[in-house]
Write a structure and sequence with these properties.
- The structure is a single chain.
- This protein is α/β, with parallel strands linked by helices and 277 residues long.
- The chain has one domain: NAD(P)-binding Rossmann-like Domain (Rossmann fold).
- Helix 3 links the parallel strand 2 and strand 3.
- It is globular and about 55 Å long.
- The N and C termini lie far apart (62 Å).
Length: 277
């Protein structure tokens, strides 16, 4: 068939067809990412970042209402939500069944909880460790078969914290869980490198999210000052004197997901609060 007879190349349709071809190319190059903890904060920003780049996002979390709100904000078609609790392996398995044979190009293990913990009957140690550390282990292992189905370079990206590198009083569970994630990341980076799976971690500092605001209030209450007063104290150790925005963390995540030779690495984004050589 002569080229001019193809509907894509009829006279007067060049601009329209150029757009159509670009859209088709984007669809062919699009990846599918599963993001835990995507109902708010950093997870929601990650989903928005990836969806804006033309990728398909599957958002996972405990609150269907929050996940639906994230879904409603995402540009483009094909996005999906999965309600599951990463602390519960059976809950994750049920979510995996819903995915069926879907192949995933990346797992973004972002879900986590924060706050203080104190030894005693009301100690939150188990809850924080089972969510942040064991939950990440559960999440990645549950969906690893879907990751293995994808062609080319694949990614596991873990959201850790600056508190994996620093100690804070009464944050023993949180600090331990986030430090544990870095050990988990390095082990997986070696283990899965032969399969073309890159494993990295991001360590955000203070980020302007609901969880951080709750943390500010909790610490302020415990030392008897206002949240604004504690914010000023907290920012004294941050050279940039401000919190990061979730979109900034998402931008770093997007960069890592675009790479094919970075693995086993921890990238800090904390306003200069920790400077590693």
């Amino acid at each position: 068939m002569p080229l001019i007879q193809s509907p894509l190349f009829l006279p007067g349709t060049y601009i329209y067809n150029r757009v159509l071809i670009n859209q088709l190319c984007t669809m062919m190059l699009a990846s599918t990412y599963l993001i835990s903890g995507a109902g708010s904060g950093i997870g929601r920003a990650m989903a928005m970042q990836l969806a804006t780049q033309g990728h398909r996002c599957i958002v996972l979390g405990r609150s269907q209402l929050r996940l639906q709100h994230t879904l409603d904000t995402l540009p483009g078609p094909g996005h999906q939500l999965l309600v599951a609790d990463i602390r519960n392996a059976e809950s994750l398995q049920q979510a995996a069944v819903v995915l069926g044979n879907t192949s995933l190009n990346g797992l973004l293990a972002n879900a986590g909880i924060g706050g203080e913990n104190y030894w005693g009957e009301a100690d939150r140690w188990d809850d924080i460790i089972s969510t942040n550390l064991t939950g990440t282990y559960n999440f990645v292992n549950t969906f690893l078969p879907h990751l293995r189905k994808a062609e080319g370079t694949k990614h596991i990206l873990i959201t850790s914290s600056v508190l994996a590198r620093l100690g804070v009083a009464n944050y023993s569970a949180y600090c331990a869980s986030k430090a544990g994630l870095l050990g988990l990341m390095r082990s997986w980076a070696v283990q899965y490198a032969p399969e073309g799976i890159l494993v990295n971690a991001i360590c955000p500092g203070w980020v302007d999210t609901e969880m951080s605001q709750e943390g500010l209030q909790g610490i302020a209450d415990s030392i008897g000052i206002t949240k604004n007063e504690f914010y000023d104290i907290a920012m004294q150790s941050v050279p940039l004197k401000r919190m990061s925005q979730p979109e900034e963390i998402a931008g770093l995540a997007g960069y890592l997901l675009s790479q094919s030779s970075i693995t086993g690495q921890t990238l800090d984004i904390n306003g200069g609060a920790v400077m590693n050589s």
